[in-house]
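hey can u check if this looks right to u? its 90 residues, i copy pasted from the old doc so theres a chance i mangled smth
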Amino acid sequence: MHIFKKVLGVVFILMGIPLTLSLAVQIPTVLGNVLSIFSASNAQEVGYGIGSLVAFLFFGFIVYLLFRFGIKWLKAPKKKIDPIDSVGEE
């Protein structure tokens, strides 16, 4: 099961890299759409700006989860260590 998680972690990170790049490329477009909300003359522009922002944030959250689980599953499992409370006792 540990090997499966490590492979899945690598796959998630490899999926997250191009998605992060696509998010970075879309930042100017989304900012332009959001800023158009304040100078909008009709409801269609406001809706398009808000929809662009919501979709961008949702997509960013998905990428965040890909990286979070990818890194979490790549880490070595924590070893359970007993505390040293009985040092010097016999």
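The first helix runs from residue 2 to 35.
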